[in-house]
Design brief:
The protein is α/β, with parallel strands linked by helices and about 350 residues long. It has helices spanning about 15-25, 80-85, 90-110, 145-165, 190-200, 220-230, 250-260, 285-290, 300-315; strands spanning about 5-10, 30-35, 55-60, 70-75, 110-120, 170-175, 175-180, 205, 210-215, 215, 240, 245-250, 265-270. Residues about 320-338 have low confidence and may be disordered. Bound molecules: uridine-5'-diphosphate (UDP).
Length: about 350
């Protein structure tokens, strides 16, 4: 008899988590989705609830979890600055206590475990593009530190469990990712710009708009994560995952205006503290070890994301006040989660 793998996905109803759950179900796995719904929505996984190999558990991974699984994908953590700065202590606990709890679980079960790390471990990088051997330039006491340092500590924990307990680990450093199921009001640049454009509201560029980011479409990223998890045991990372195409934030704004046909003006707002000037992954390692590189160009991914938000806006008729980002008052303006 064919026995499917039992796979735990923490943060499974979030933006990335929900796409990953779908992918794993398509691969024939039994999926246990764990989420505390702090900044994710049930609607992301509603369509999976009737699936016979899908199970949802409301749980906060800062507390121990006792379940029986074969593999763990640890994605739980608010990832947008607005969300992770709303309760920074909880953010740090989610990364650190969450990693300890999940690593402890993996150790008991002899399960392979994946960690969603981040390009934020590079901070405001002094080398460009960023390679995995760069140790980063992170402010330990700034407003982004709860996320950056939490994810750095989680990486340390993963590598110590690997060295000390021979745990099979997989660590990906995920660069900016976008696509359907991003929260419309999580304050991130792609969702902000698209929602603003669709509502014909001003597009808010923070700073001069000369800062750069590299945007990876969600299905590309999920493919990379899946390949890493299923790569030979000696491939443990950290391994960069992102799209090496680099754009200024102003270029992104112009592209979104062009693709939506919006009448929006661009307005300039202050740059939040510690906002990295530039970011672009070197993905040579992922190409070599996983034969992976992103396939979806920005314009194509943006069209799909625009279609998603357009449908959402026409279903709910309005979105808010809310698409206005409030970087200096985290939490304000965040839409109630459904
Ligand atoms: N940004 C912007 N307008 C917005 C939201 C973000 O200009 O409405 C900028 C932000 O200051 C940063 C970049 O876009 O320079 C990416 O921001 P995001 O929060 O999406 O990701 P991160 O800063 O974590 O890379």
């Amino acid at each position: 008899m064919f026995l499917s793998k039992r796979i735990l996905v923490t943060g499974g109803s979030g933006f990335l988590g929900s796409h990953l759950c779908e992918r794993l179900l398509n691969e024939g796995a039994e999926v246990l989705c764990v989420d505390n719904f702090y900044c994710s929505t049930r609607s992301n996984i509603e369509h999976l609830l009737g699936h016979k190999r899908f199970e949802l558990l409301r749980h906060d991974i800062t507390f121990p979890l006792v379940v029986e699984v074969d593999e763990i994908y640890n994605l739980a953590c608010p990832a947008s600055p607005v969300h992770y700065q709303r309760d920074p202590v909880q953010t740090l606990k989610t990364s650190v206590h969450g990693a300890i709890n999940m690593l402890g679980l993996a150790k008991r079960l002899h399960a392979k475990i994946f960690q969603a790390s981040t390009s934020e471990v590079y901070g405001d990088p002094e080398i460009h593009p960023q390679t995995e051997d760069y140790w980063g330039n992170v402010n330990p006491i700034g407003i982004r530190s709860c996320y950056d340092e939490g994810k750095r500590a989680a990486e340390t924990l993963f590598f110590d469990y690997h060295r000390q307990h021979k745990l099979r680990i997989k660590v990906a450093r995920i660069f900016n990712t976008y696509g359907p199921r991003m929260h419309p009001n999580d304050g991130r640049v792609v969702s902000n710009f698209i929602v603003q454009a669709l509502l014909n509201k001003p597009i808010t560029i923070f700073g001069s708009g000369e800062q750069t980011r590299s945007f990876c479409y969600v299905t590309d990223l999920i493919e990379g994560i899946y390949r890493l998890m299923n790569s030979p045991d000696h491939v443990i990372g950290p391994i960069n995952m992102g799209n090496p195409g680099e754009f200024t934030i102003r270029e992104l704004a112009e592209k979104v205006i062009e693709l939506t046909g919006a009448a929006s003006q661009i307005v300039y707002k202050p740059l939040p503290h510690d906002d990295p000037c530039r970011r672009k992954p070197n993905i040579d390692l992922a190409r070599k070890e996983l034969n992976w590189s992103p396939a979806v160009p920005l314009a194509e991914g943006l069209k799909k994301t625009i279609a998603y938000f357009d449908k959402m806006l026409s279903t709910f008729k309005a979105l808010p006040e809310t698409s206005e980002p409030y970087r200096d008052n985290p939490g304000e303006g965040v839409m109630p989660l459904v």
